[in-house]
Amino acid sequence: MNKQDFVSNGIGLIEKDNAITDCFKRAKTDQERELMKKGLEQSLETAYNAYAKDYFESKNAGGYISKILRTASLGTSAIWAYSFFVFGGAGFGVLGIGALAKVAAEYIDNKHYEEHVKKSGLEKIISKDGLLLAGEAAGQLAASYLPGGEIWAFLRGTKKYDANIANGALYRAKEEFLKRFADAVKEEPKLVPLKEFRDPRYAADLAFSPA
Amino acid sequence: MQIKECVLIEPYFCKETDTVVDVAKKLRETTLRHIFVVNDAFQPTGIISIIDINNRVVAVGANPSVLKAKDIMSKPVDIININDDTLTVSNAMMEKNRVMCPVAKDGKMVGIITINELLRRSEAK
Protein backbone atom coordinates (compact mmCIF):
# COMPACT_ATOMS: atom_id res chain seq x y z
CA MET A 1 0.00 0.00 0.00
CA ASN A 2 1.51 3.33 -0.96
CA LYS A 3 0.95 6.69 0.75
CA GLN A 4 -1.67 7.90 -1.72
CA ASP A 5 -3.77 4.75 -1.31
CA PHE A 6 -3.43 4.96 2.46
CA VAL A 7 -4.53 8.60 2.57
CA SER A 8 -7.49 8.14 0.23
CA ASN A 9 -8.62 4.99 2.07
CA GLY A 10 -8.05 6.76 5.38
CA ILE A 11 -10.12 9.78 4.42
CA GLY A 12 -12.97 7.47 3.45
CA LEU A 13 -12.84 5.36 6.58
CA ILE A 14 -11.83 7.84 9.23
CA GLU A 15 -14.59 10.32 8.45
CA LYS A 16 -17.07 7.68 9.56
CA ASP A 17 -15.48 7.74 12.99
CA ASN A 18 -17.78 9.38 15.57
CA ALA A 19 -15.15 11.59 17.24
CA ILE A 20 -13.92 12.89 13.90
CA THR A 21 -17.41 13.41 12.51
CA ASP A 22 -18.22 15.46 15.63
CA CYS A 23 -15.13 17.54 15.04
CA PHE A 24 -16.18 18.27 11.44
CA LYS A 25 -19.72 19.11 12.55
CA ARG A 26 -18.37 21.79 14.87
CA ALA A 27 -16.65 23.62 11.99
CA LYS A 28 -18.55 26.84 11.36
CA THR A 29 -17.69 27.51 7.73
CA ASP A 30 -16.85 25.54 4.61
CA GLN A 31 -13.38 27.03 4.73
CA GLU A 32 -12.86 25.69 8.25
CA ARG A 33 -14.14 22.30 7.14
CA GLU A 34 -11.73 22.36 4.21
CA LEU A 35 -8.85 23.20 6.56
CA MET A 36 -9.81 20.32 8.83
CA LYS A 37 -9.91 17.95 5.89
CA LYS A 38 -6.46 19.10 4.93
CA GLY A 39 -5.37 18.60 8.54
CA LEU A 40 -6.73 15.09 8.41
CA GLU A 41 -4.76 14.41 5.24
CA GLN A 42 -1.65 15.78 6.93
CA SER A 43 -2.20 13.50 9.93
CA LEU A 44 -2.66 10.52 7.63
CA GLU A 45 0.49 11.35 5.72
CA THR A 46 2.49 11.81 8.90
CA ALA A 47 1.18 8.55 10.36
CA TYR A 48 1.95 6.68 7.15
CA ASN A 49 5.51 8.02 7.13
CA ALA A 50 6.06 7.15 10.78
CA TYR A 51 4.28 3.82 11.10
CA ALA A 52 3.63 2.16 7.74
CA LYS A 53 6.08 3.42 5.10
CA ASP A 54 9.02 1.28 6.25
CA TYR A 55 6.85 -1.83 6.44
CA PHE A 56 5.45 -1.49 2.94
CA GLU A 57 8.68 -0.31 1.35
CA SER A 58 11.05 -2.78 2.97
CA LYS A 59 9.40 -6.02 1.88
CA ASN A 60 11.81 -6.35 -1.08
CA ALA A 61 12.87 -9.91 -1.89
CA GLY A 62 11.02 -11.36 1.13
CA GLY A 63 7.72 -10.13 -0.26
CA TYR A 64 8.36 -11.71 -3.67
CA ILE A 65 9.55 -15.00 -2.18
CA SER A 66 6.49 -15.14 0.06
CA LYS A 67 4.21 -14.50 -2.92
CA ILE A 68 5.94 -17.21 -4.96
CA LEU A 69 5.64 -19.69 -2.08
CA ARG A 70 1.97 -18.90 -1.60
CA THR A 71 1.30 -19.27 -5.34
CA ALA A 72 3.23 -22.54 -5.34
CA SER A 73 1.11 -23.72 -2.43
CA LEU A 74 -2.06 -22.89 -4.35
CA GLY A 75 -0.66 -24.69 -7.42
CA THR A 76 0.13 -27.85 -5.46
CA SER A 77 -3.43 -27.89 -4.16
CA ALA A 78 -4.75 -27.78 -7.70
CA ILE A 79 -2.40 -30.63 -8.68
CA TRP A 80 -3.49 -32.58 -5.63
CA ALA A 81 -7.18 -32.08 -6.42
CA TYR A 82 -6.62 -33.23 -9.99
CA SER A 83 -4.55 -36.28 -8.95
CA PHE A 84 -7.03 -37.18 -6.25
CA PHE A 85 -9.96 -37.40 -8.61
CA VAL A 86 -8.16 -38.76 -11.67
CA PHE A 87 -5.81 -41.27 -10.02
CA GLY A 88 -7.94 -41.97 -6.98
CA GLY A 89 -6.40 -40.82 -3.74
CA ALA A 90 -2.96 -39.93 -5.12
CA GLY A 91 -1.11 -36.62 -4.67
CA PHE A 92 -0.90 -36.22 -0.91
CA GLY A 93 2.87 -35.80 -1.17
CA VAL A 94 2.40 -32.79 -3.44
CA LEU A 95 -0.10 -31.38 -1.00
CA GLY A 96 2.46 -31.77 1.78
CA ILE A 97 5.00 -29.76 -0.21
CA GLY A 98 2.38 -27.05 -0.70
CA ALA A 99 1.71 -26.95 3.03
CA LEU A 100 5.44 -26.55 3.71
CA ALA A 101 5.66 -23.74 1.17
CA LYS A 102 2.80 -21.99 2.93
CA VAL A 103 4.43 -22.36 6.34
CA ALA A 104 7.65 -20.89 4.92
CA ALA A 105 5.74 -17.95 3.39
CA GLU A 106 3.99 -17.38 6.69
CA TYR A 107 7.33 -17.38 8.52
CA ILE A 108 8.79 -14.76 6.16
CA ASP A 109 5.75 -12.46 6.41
CA ASN A 110 5.43 -12.90 10.15
CA LYS A 111 9.10 -12.11 10.75
CA HIS A 112 8.92 -8.92 8.68
CA TYR A 113 5.70 -7.88 10.43
CA GLU A 114 6.98 -8.56 13.94
CA GLU A 115 10.21 -6.65 13.32
CA HIS A 116 8.34 -3.63 12.02
CA VAL A 117 5.76 -3.61 14.81
CA LYS A 118 8.51 -3.59 17.43
CA LYS A 119 10.57 -0.95 15.62
CA SER A 120 7.68 1.43 14.94
CA GLY A 121 6.14 1.19 18.43
CA LEU A 122 2.84 -0.02 17.00
CA GLU A 123 2.84 -2.96 19.40
CA LYS A 124 1.09 -0.84 22.03
CA ILE A 125 -1.98 -0.41 19.87
CA ILE A 126 -2.08 -3.53 17.74
CA SER A 127 -4.00 -6.15 19.62
CA LYS A 128 -3.39 -8.98 17.19
CA ASP A 129 0.26 -9.80 17.40
CA GLY A 130 2.20 -11.79 14.87
CA LEU A 131 1.82 -14.99 16.80
CA LEU A 132 -1.95 -14.75 16.73
CA LEU A 133 -1.88 -13.95 13.05
CA ALA A 134 0.34 -16.95 12.39
CA GLY A 135 -2.16 -18.95 14.46
CA GLU A 136 -4.82 -17.72 12.13
CA ALA A 137 -2.65 -19.11 9.33
CA ALA A 138 -2.71 -22.51 11.03
CA GLY A 139 -6.51 -22.22 11.01
CA GLN A 140 -6.30 -21.43 7.33
CA LEU A 141 -4.31 -24.58 6.82
CA ALA A 142 -7.18 -26.59 8.30
CA ALA A 143 -9.76 -24.56 6.40
CA SER A 144 -7.86 -25.03 3.19
CA TYR A 145 -8.92 -28.67 3.13
CA LEU A 146 -12.49 -27.52 2.64
CA PRO A 147 -13.72 -26.96 -0.91
CA GLY A 148 -12.49 -23.56 -2.09
CA GLY A 149 -10.61 -23.08 1.17
CA GLU A 150 -7.22 -22.96 -0.48
CA ILE A 151 -8.25 -20.10 -2.73
CA TRP A 152 -9.60 -18.19 0.28
CA ALA A 153 -6.35 -18.76 2.17
CA PHE A 154 -4.32 -17.59 -0.84
CA LEU A 155 -6.37 -14.43 -1.22
CA ARG A 156 -6.07 -13.65 2.49
CA GLY A 157 -2.29 -14.27 2.29
CA THR A 158 -0.19 -11.39 3.56
CA LYS A 159 -3.17 -9.05 3.63
CA LYS A 160 -3.85 -9.81 7.27
CA TYR A 161 -0.45 -8.39 8.22
CA ASP A 162 -0.77 -5.42 5.88
CA ALA A 163 -4.24 -4.58 7.20
CA ASN A 164 -2.99 -4.64 10.79
CA ILE A 165 -0.16 -2.22 10.03
CA ALA A 166 -2.50 0.07 8.07
CA ASN A 167 -5.06 0.04 10.88
CA GLY A 168 -2.37 0.81 13.45
CA ALA A 169 -1.20 3.80 11.39
CA LEU A 170 -4.82 4.88 10.91
CA TYR A 171 -5.34 4.82 14.66
CA ARG A 172 -2.28 7.04 15.14
CA ALA A 173 -3.54 9.43 12.43
CA LYS A 174 -6.88 9.73 14.21
CA GLU A 175 -5.18 10.31 17.53
CA GLU A 176 -3.01 13.05 16.04
CA PHE A 177 -5.89 14.70 14.21
CA LEU A 178 -8.02 14.85 17.38
CA LYS A 179 -5.09 16.18 19.38
CA ARG A 180 -4.91 19.07 16.92
CA PHE A 181 -8.53 19.79 16.22
CA ALA A 182 -10.81 18.48 18.98
CA ASP A 183 -10.30 21.49 21.25
CA ALA A 184 -9.05 23.91 18.67
CA VAL A 185 -12.37 24.30 16.83
CA LYS A 186 -14.01 25.83 19.87
CA GLU A 187 -12.33 29.24 19.60
CA GLU A 188 -10.21 29.58 16.52
CA PRO A 189 -8.75 32.72 14.97
CA LYS A 190 -9.64 33.44 11.37
CA LEU A 191 -7.45 31.42 9.05
CA VAL A 192 -6.66 32.00 5.45
CA PRO A 193 -5.76 28.95 3.35
CA LEU A 194 -2.18 28.54 2.35
CA LYS A 195 -3.09 28.27 -1.33
CA GLU A 196 -3.69 32.04 -1.29
CA PHE A 197 0.08 32.39 -0.90
CA ARG A 198 1.07 29.98 -3.65
CA ASP A 199 3.48 31.41 -6.14
CA PRO A 200 2.50 30.00 -9.56
CA ARG A 201 6.06 30.50 -10.80
CA TYR A 202 7.16 27.73 -8.43
CA ALA A 203 4.24 25.37 -8.96
CA ALA A 204 5.24 21.70 -9.00
CA ASP A 205 4.20 21.21 -12.64
CA LEU A 206 6.62 23.94 -13.68
CA ALA A 207 9.44 22.63 -11.50
CA PHE A 208 11.27 21.16 -14.47
CA SER A 209 10.77 24.04 -16.89
CA PRO A 210 13.35 26.66 -15.94
CA ALA A 211 12.33 30.20 -16.73
CA MET B 1 -5.52 44.31 20.00
CA GLN B 2 -4.57 40.67 20.28
CA ILE B 3 -3.12 38.27 17.73
CA LYS B 4 -6.27 36.13 17.82
CA GLU B 5 -8.14 38.99 16.16
CA CYS B 6 -5.81 38.90 13.15
CA VAL B 7 -6.17 36.74 10.07
CA LEU B 8 -3.59 33.98 10.26
CA ILE B 9 -2.27 31.66 7.59
CA GLU B 10 -3.36 28.07 8.12
CA PRO B 11 -0.77 26.17 10.17
CA TYR B 12 1.52 24.49 7.71
CA PHE B 13 4.38 22.50 9.13
CA CYS B 14 6.38 19.33 9.02
CA LYS B 15 7.15 17.00 11.90
CA GLU B 16 10.60 16.71 13.45
CA THR B 17 10.75 13.11 12.30
CA ASP B 18 9.91 13.82 8.62
CA THR B 19 12.78 13.11 6.25
CA VAL B 20 14.30 15.98 4.29
CA VAL B 21 12.77 14.48 1.13
CA ASP B 22 9.30 14.81 2.68
CA VAL B 23 10.09 18.36 3.80
CA ALA B 24 11.25 19.28 0.29
CA LYS B 25 8.05 17.83 -1.16
CA LYS B 26 5.98 19.95 1.22
CA LEU B 27 7.92 23.06 0.25
CA ARG B 28 7.40 22.26 -3.41
CA GLU B 29 3.69 21.83 -2.79
CA THR B 30 3.35 25.17 -0.97
CA THR B 31 5.84 27.05 -3.18
CA LEU B 32 7.03 28.73 0.03
CA ARG B 33 10.66 29.24 0.94
CA HIS B 34 10.43 27.95 4.48
CA ILE B 35 8.37 25.67 6.67
CA PHE B 36 7.97 25.43 10.44
CA VAL B 37 8.84 22.23 12.29
CA VAL B 38 6.70 20.91 15.16
CA ASN B 39 7.21 18.15 17.73
CA ASP B 40 4.71 15.43 18.65
CA ALA B 41 2.76 17.90 20.81
CA PHE B 42 2.49 20.31 17.83
CA GLN B 43 4.75 22.84 19.52
CA PRO B 44 6.90 24.73 17.00
CA THR B 45 10.52 23.76 17.55
CA GLY B 46 12.30 25.07 14.48
CA ILE B 47 12.18 26.32 10.92
CA ILE B 48 13.63 24.98 7.70
CA SER B 49 14.30 27.20 4.73
CA ILE B 50 15.39 26.20 1.26
CA ILE B 51 18.75 27.71 2.20
CA ASP B 52 18.99 25.20 5.09
CA ILE B 53 18.29 22.36 2.67
CA ASN B 54 20.92 23.70 0.29
CA ASN B 55 23.60 24.37 2.91
CA ARG B 56 23.05 21.49 5.33
CA VAL B 57 22.08 18.75 2.91
CA VAL B 58 22.89 19.35 -0.76
CA ALA B 59 26.16 21.27 -0.33
CA VAL B 60 27.60 18.67 2.07
CA GLY B 61 26.37 15.68 0.07
CA ALA B 62 24.18 14.34 2.89
CA ASN B 63 21.44 11.81 2.21
CA PRO B 64 18.03 13.59 2.25
CA SER B 65 16.16 10.28 2.58
CA VAL B 66 17.88 9.55 5.89
CA LEU B 67 18.28 13.00 7.44
CA LYS B 68 15.33 14.18 9.51
CA ALA B 69 13.84 17.64 9.76
CA LYS B 70 15.17 17.99 13.32
CA ASP B 71 18.72 17.40 12.04
CA ILE B 72 18.74 20.40 9.72
CA MET B 73 16.22 22.84 11.21
CA SER B 74 17.24 26.24 12.54
CA LYS B 75 16.26 26.67 16.17
CA PRO B 76 14.89 28.02 18.38
CA VAL B 77 11.98 29.68 16.67
CA ASP B 78 10.08 32.71 18.02
CA ILE B 79 6.60 31.59 19.01
CA ILE B 80 3.79 34.12 19.25
CA ASN B 81 1.02 33.48 21.71
CA ILE B 82 -2.51 33.93 20.47
CA ASN B 83 -3.20 36.41 23.28
CA ASP B 84 -0.10 38.55 22.64
CA ASP B 85 -0.48 42.21 21.81
CA THR B 86 -0.17 42.93 18.06
CA LEU B 87 1.91 46.09 18.50
CA THR B 88 4.46 44.35 20.74
CA VAL B 89 4.65 41.45 18.30
CA SER B 90 5.05 43.64 15.21
CA ASN B 91 7.81 45.66 16.89
CA ALA B 92 9.63 42.50 17.94
CA MET B 93 9.27 40.97 14.47
CA MET B 94 10.55 44.10 12.74
CA GLU B 95 13.47 44.32 15.13
CA LYS B 96 14.48 40.74 14.34
CA ASN B 97 13.65 40.99 10.61
CA ARG B 98 11.02 38.26 10.84
CA VAL B 99 8.54 38.00 7.97
CA MET B 100 6.34 35.38 9.60
CA CYS B 101 6.11 33.57 12.94
CA PRO B 102 4.19 30.59 14.22
CA VAL B 103 1.23 31.38 16.48
CA ALA B 104 0.46 28.99 19.32
CA LYS B 105 -2.48 28.42 21.60
CA ASP B 106 -1.80 26.36 24.72
CA GLY B 107 1.57 25.58 23.16
CA LYS B 108 0.09 24.06 19.98
CA MET B 109 0.66 25.73 16.64
CA VAL B 110 -2.65 27.12 15.34
CA GLY B 111 -1.51 29.42 12.53
CA ILE B 112 1.12 31.72 11.10
CA ILE B 113 1.17 35.49 11.49
CA THR B 114 2.83 37.65 8.85
CA ILE B 115 4.35 41.08 9.28
CA ASN B 116 2.08 42.31 6.45
CA GLU B 117 -1.02 41.38 8.41
CA LEU B 118 0.30 43.13 11.54
CA LEU B 119 1.15 46.29 9.58
CA ARG B 120 -2.26 46.22 7.91
CA ARG B 121 -3.88 46.02 11.35
CA SER B 122 -1.84 48.90 12.73
CA GLU B 123 -2.75 51.05 9.70
CA ALA B 124 -6.44 50.24 10.15
CA LYS B 125 -6.41 51.45 13.76
Low-confidence stretches of chain A: none
CATH architecture of chain B: Roll
Q: Show the largest interface.
A: A-B, 27 and 29 residues
Tally of helical segments of chain A:
8
Number of strands of chain A: 1
Kindly describe this structure.
- The complex is a heterodimer of chains A (211) and B (125).
- With 211 residues, chain A is mostly helical.
- Chain A is built from 8 helices and 1 strand; from the N terminus they run ααααααααβ.
- In chain A, helix 4 (60-87) runs antiparallel to helix 5 and helix 6 (130-143) packs antiparallel against helix 7.
- The mean pLDDT of chain A is 72.
- By secondary structure, chain B is of the alpha/beta class.
- Chain B has one domain (3-123): CBS-domain.
- In chain B, a hairpin with a 5-residue loop joins strand 3 and strand 4 (44-49).
- The longest helix of chain B is centred in the N-terminal third of the chain and has 11 residues, at 20-30.
- The radius of gyration of chain B is 15 Å and the shape is elongated.
- Chains A and B meet through helix 3 and strand 1 of A and strand 1, helix 1 and strand 7 of B.
Question: What is the fold's blueprint, element by element?
Answer:
The complex is a heterodimer of chains A (211) and B (125).
Chain A: H1 3-14, H2 18-25, H3 30-57, H4 60-87, H5 92-120, H6 130-143, H7 149-156, H8 159-181, E1 190-192
Chain B: E1 7-9, E2 13-15, H1 20-30, E3 34-38, E4 44-49, H2 50-58, H3 69-72, E5 80-81, H4 86-95, E6 100-105, E7 108-114, H5 115-124
Parallel strand pairs in B: 2-3, 5-6
Antiparallel strand pairs in B: 3-4, 6-7
